[in-house]
Amino acid sequence: MARVIGGLGTSHVPAIGGAIARHAQHEPYWSPFFDGFVPVCDWLKSERPDIVVIFYNDHGLNFFLDKMPTFAIGAAAEYRNQDEGWGLATSAPFLGDARLSWHLIEALVAQEFDIATCQDMLVDHAVTIPMSLMWGSELPRIRIVPIAINTVQHPLPSPARCLRLGQAVGRALADYEEDARIVIVGSGGLSHQLDGARAGYINKTFDLYCMQQLVDDPATLTEYSSLDLVELAGTQGVELLNWIAMRGALTGEVRKIHSNYHVPISNTATGILLLENPSDGL
After folding, report:
1. Pairing of strands 51-56, 143-149
2. Would you call 12 a catalytic residue per the annotation?
3. Interval 2-49: pLDDT, tens
4. pLDDT grade, residue 88 (50/70/90)?
5. Do 207 and 261 contact (CB within 8 A), yes or no?
6. Domains delineated in the chain
């Protein structure tokens, strides 16, 4: 049977990809962030997952304001990356797992989630940067299942809805018959706002509170609306929804393996949170 072995929350700032390309990881500006990822890489080498299910938000590579699904799941054999205009090199395609994708889609629709099914899907920096951070250029034969959450076009899904989405994914994975080790990733954030009167806004207190509650009591975050998250974490800080969905897919109490918080990178509060899932399942 499939087993979710853990979850990871991580920032996906495009500038991180530029730093990787320039081999700038040890520069003073970058080292507090990249050094914080070393325990994550060590854990992945030890645990050797087969599949990554990643909750992320598309930045216009697939969906734009005229067509923006609330939730979308990739069901492709591979996922290509294209130039987004950030100056980042295009990544090689990632392997998909269409069989697992369809299992999730069918399970989620049965639980009354309205899912956009994407049999052809591009992935942007919100997927490529976490994958680079986790495995660098030595990416093993990892399969991915991308799940996109709308964090751009209002009305946005609520934290409560995203937690329930993650829980539904976790239940579906527990029912999947393949013997596979799965890591759940929540990609984005933390607090940041890139434009408008509050450009450069960072809320360290709220970020650290959310990181702790994701470990101890994620249900407390469902007391906020999506507009509350915009107010407290910034327009783009609402990407915290991806972390909440990730936590929902983990079963029962979890154990925090590692966390790191650093500000700022490109006017963004960056965070890392690695959680280990209990072995006894649902």
Report:
1. parallel
2. no
3. 999 999 999 999 999 999 999 999 999 999 999 999 999 999 999 999
4. confident
5. yes
6. 3-276 (3.40.830.10)
Length of the chain, please?
Answer: 282
CA 234 to chain centre: 18
- Tokens 């299992």 appear where? 103
188 vs 246: CA distance, rounded Å: 11
Active-site residue 192, yes or no? yes
Give the integer Cα–Cα distance in Å for 172 and 274: 22
What angle, 0 to 180 degrees and rounded to 10, lies between the N-to-C axes of helices 226-233 and 240-248? 130
Active-site residue, selected from the candidate residues 59, 103, 192, 262: 192
Q: Three-state SS string across the chain, please?
A: CCEEEEEEEECCCHHHHHHHHCCCCCCCCCHHHHHHHHHHHHHHHHHCCCEEEEEECCCCCCCECCECCCEEEECCCEEECCCCCCCCCCCCCEEECHHHHHHHHHHHHHCCCCCEEECCCECCHHHHHHHHHHHCCCCCCCEEEEEEECCCCCCCCCHHHHHHHHHHHHHHHHCCCCCCEEEEEEECCCCCCCCCCCCCCCCHHHHHHHHHHHHHCHHHHHHCCHHHHHHHHCCHHHHHHHHHHHHHCCCCCCEEEEEEEEEEECCEEEEEEEEECCCCCC
* Residue 266, amino acid: S
Query: Which pLDDT score, from 0 to 100, does residue 83 have?
Result: 76
User: Residues 12, 103, 125, 262: which is the catalytic one?
Assistant: 125
